[in-house]
Amino acid sequence: MEKAKLALNHAIMIEIIRKHGLSNEGILGLLEEGKIENFYQFGEGIPDWQTFIQFYENQKDRLVRAITHGYQITFLTKGALKSLLGIKFGVENFEDCGTYLDGIILSKTQLFELQGLISINWKIIEKEVVDEEHHIKIELTKPV
Known about the structure:
Elements (H helix, E strand, L loop, with lengths): L3 E3 L1 H12 L4 H10 L15 H10 L1 H10 L1 E3 L4 H12 L5 E2 L3 E8 H10 L4 E9 L2 E8 L4
Parallel strand pairs: 1-2
Antiparallel strand pairs: 3-4, 4-6, 5-6
């Protein structure tokens, strides 16, 4: 099944909930209930949890597919990419070199997952593998 295309804010909200230990079924259960107060335990949404619930109500098939089968983010700014690395993968120690981020270390599974969700305006360059840790840099693609 093809991954769902999602805006960054929806992807980050999914990952915030996952970081709190909820399964896919748990996330979908909360969305199905549609009670905003059930989401307050996860902090603030982006822009808010009501928007996330409304997106589920209006685009249920797409959001269910994103949660259960994965997603690809439609566009990422550098700041958003840095936030995503921290929230989803717990990676916060890397170097911001302007048009690229360097010194990122991921497991094989994390690298595979990042490759599947990152937007097309970024390119992942694998530099080396040391003890099953993938050392990468992520570079802004140049417009054609």
